[in-house]
Amino acid sequence: xxxxxxxxxxxxxxxxxxxxxxxxxxxxxxxxxxxxxxxxxxxxxxxxxxxxxxxxxxxxxxxxxxxxxxxxxxxxxxxxxxxxxxxxxxxxxxxxxxxxxxxxxxxxxxxxxxxxxxxxxxxxxxxxxxxxxxxxx
Length: 137
Known about the structure:
With about 140 residues, the chain is mostly helical. The protein contains six helices and two strands; from the N terminus they run ααααβααβ.
């Protein structure tokens, strides 16, 4: 079932992105943001929303329609939150045809709470977070 969701997300990403034909998907750029956050001395003091804002501020250099940024935007909506990393990793592995990993994201992704919404990001309408078993597909 999880493979079906990954396939849908990867298909959507290819349809929405302008950098599909480039070799640099910048997935590691998002991982780097999580690594920087994980080493921040004030990490324990940051709220879940502040952590989300930190990541988005740090990846602001990525184009709004880049595959990496769009993948993270979709992964943020995965509930239960413990599945966010697995969804992101599955999408990256599907695109990159490899075995991508990011320990900092694996540890921190479940601790973020959506605080930042993309404005006019290709007019992507994202759903409210929901449990997968409650999803209406």
